[in-house]
Amino acid sequence: MRTGTPSIEGRRGYAFSGYVRPHRGLTLSHCGVASLHPPLALTQARGSRGPCGRPPDMTNTISGKIWLMIFCDYGIVLMRRPLRESDRIVTVFTLEHGKLEVNFKGVRLAKGKLRALSEAFSWGDYRFYLKKGSNFPVCTGGRTLSVFGGIRQDLDRIYMAQHYCEVVNKLTPAASPSPEKYDLLLGALDDLDACGTAFWLRRAFTLRALDLAGFGFRETATGPEAELWDTLHAGSWTAVRALPDDERAAVFIDGLFSRFFSGQVDINLRTLPFVK
């Protein structure tokens, strides 16, 4: 495990060793209104400080609720696209707020300070600013937790990581938090970064993502042997890597994916031709 990065429990509970995220307890609703109910210990720790350790930024107070414009969350970049000459719209899959379309201003310039946080399959701790009436939060800061350097050194790993992100992106509606899907993607990227690609990884990841999205094939009556099927759905990534190659079973599973994505939900996975 990387030094200074949170464990699975830390990702969910925001419990860094020696680091407390001061925004915990702030809940942002879809209309941009948040109620301030911080835990007692956290309130005592930060005193009167507001989100992200700064004085609270508010525009109005209505019926005891506060208009908050700044919120923080952990996230993984799923994809990006250019906006105007110097900006990017980045799809960030966050732990507590789900999938967000975020505006990164100026990151395409040579002096862009937040460029690393907007790169594909980067994992970071983000600070967002949401203007009242806007559909896109703006990233105003944060810190990179991992850029998965091992993945970026090998083209096959890059293709696989992009495929993971595309599958999650296509199967996840906007602003729908899914900690289980978040942990699946983060764990798969960690494994890919450390150990590289393997024959069954793509299929195991897709089966698990489909299961979490409510389209699982775990109870399929016919197909591969039960031990292989159970390992692909619930085994560790080490166990998945240890499975022997089986072209016949792989063709069967790929056929399931093809019929589901193209015939049932009309999704075209653009990264599929580049992964094994």
Quick description:
With 276 residues, the protein is an alpha+beta fold.
Helix fraction, binned, reads: 25-40%
How would you sum up the major sheet?
Answer: 5 strands, antiparallel
Total discrete domains: 3
Instruction: Note the run of SSEs as H and E.
Output: HEEEEHEEEEEEEHHHHHHH
Structural class: alpha+beta
- In the sheet with the most strands, the strands line up as 9-8-7-10-11
| Total helical elements | 9
Count of β-strands:
11
Radius of gyration (Å): 20 Å
Describe the structure.
Helices cover 35% and strands 24% of the residues. The strands form three sheets. Strands 9-8-7-10-11 form a five-stranded antiparallel β-sheet. The chain has a four-stranded antiparallel β-sheet with strand order 3-4-6-5, with no helix packed on it. Strands 1-2 form a two-stranded antiparallel ribbon. Helix 4 packs antiparallel against helix 5 and helix 5 (179-195) packs antiparallel against helix 6. By secondary structure, it is of the alpha+beta class. The protein is built from nine helices and eleven strands. The chain folds into three domains: 8-67, no CATH class; 71-148, OB fold (Dihydrolipoamide Acetyltransferase, E2P); 151-274, no CATH class.
